[in-house]
């Protein structure tokens, strides 16, 4: 591997999207080229000739792309609330399903007529209060207690995900046949000494799974589930359980744990994860976790004015070890800062930045969407990273009715971001300048909306894609990654196409695929060559 080449874990499926956020570095970017909208696309809603859609049920946010089968074809694996689904890569037709009713024996599973009714309710703007109550009902029905959101697919066509009390492996009866039935291959139940519910999952360079819990535990688990190593992050003992209990009481859900996002991994055994107010680099040496400085481990405080901690999975920036390399998060301030940390040794002449709680912080970019008077803006989406650029989106609704509790405001962006009164606007990019050793604003776009989606950058086409909204309809937006200029959009239509927090991704052929509230979609447009070549 060349020094400046992006590391790909050889034990993951050989595809562009074998793990949530694409690769172990969690950047949400790809070297592939992607499509661009035509002028006429602005004036029409995409139909079945332009966009594939498949009803799948609730919770199918991610879509993991397999490696090649012996017949030269691929599949897409999707883990939902009610079933695991394997789709034909080309057509999105369902090849196999695995029922998950045993995971929720007390829950009445839903039907397509319920999904269609739910979508219709979200698009009925005649009564604002009723609209919000429809969203609350759907959130309570399909989002409460959701687990297994983060998953990965390995080189042997085995999907791994962490449920609240264990890790489950799903595979095929015959891994050489993409039409083969799905099965639960194995289950690893969490030992009693490991506290909390599983949150994140990734894979270290030796092919072992690494998982985290909301109580601050890290677990290295062999993929055959025969052995594991578990440690609690320093500082978590006692404090993590207390914090989780406090936040569940305060917010009414378990989504704000001491650790509440996934983690990223590098090619050297480094594992990066956020706790309540620190970013940690823990080192896996093949046998044990290390928290020692001499092994390359570190822990660095970040700003946390809100007290809620970071809501973003850490992302790696930079590949060449002879050049500047960083870890990127959105911090916990009321106005979130895109925060860069030196990944390797801190330069000897580096001085602590003003208002930075740690010398390791290399940059603080307030993602205020160009409004320095904003008193609150947070993002639940990982910071999108490509090259030395890092971008955040605005998830704060434009308006919240006085009767709706503040803790429920994010529901307005996630379920009702297309309702004009609630639509948030703004994408904000900062960029590291290695010559000046400064992290400065690159651009702000205040006209495009990205209410809840995880964007993805096509480095090949130098654009960023996200799910947006215009005039009450859902869209896929395309912006120039260098300038932030809008390059157009596709109108996908009704709330079937609301990504609801999931990512927009390019498949292996450079076509846009995304999960949504009850299904999976693909825009049938082929890649466009690099605009800046």
Question: Can you offer a commentary on this structure?
Answer:
This protein is mostly beta strands and 533 residues long. Helix 2 crosses helix 4. It has helices spanning 112-122, 128-142, 239-251, 410-416; strands at 29-30, 51-55, 64-65, 75-79, 83-88, 94-99, 151-153, 159-162, 166-172, 182-189, 198-203, 209-213, 217-221, 228-232, 264-265, 270-274, 278-284, 289-290, 298-301, 315-317, 326-330, 337-342, 361-366, 384-386, 389-393, 427-433, 438-445, 456-458, 463-470, 473-480, 486-493, 504-506, 512-515, 519-523. Helix content is 9%, strand content 32%. Strands 1-28-29-30-31 form a five-stranded mixed sheet, with no helix packed on it. Strands 15, 16, 17, 18 and 19 form a five-stranded antiparallel sheet that branches.
Biggest sheet: strands side by side, in what order? 1-28-29-30-31
Q: Report strand %.
A: 25-35%
Spatial gap, N to C terminus: 24 Å
Shape: globular
- As a percent range, the share of helical residues equals under 10%
Question: How many DSSP E strands?
Answer: 34
Please state the average pLDDT score. 94
List unreliable stretches of 5+ residues: none
- Total number of helical segments? 4
The SS-based structural class is: mainly beta
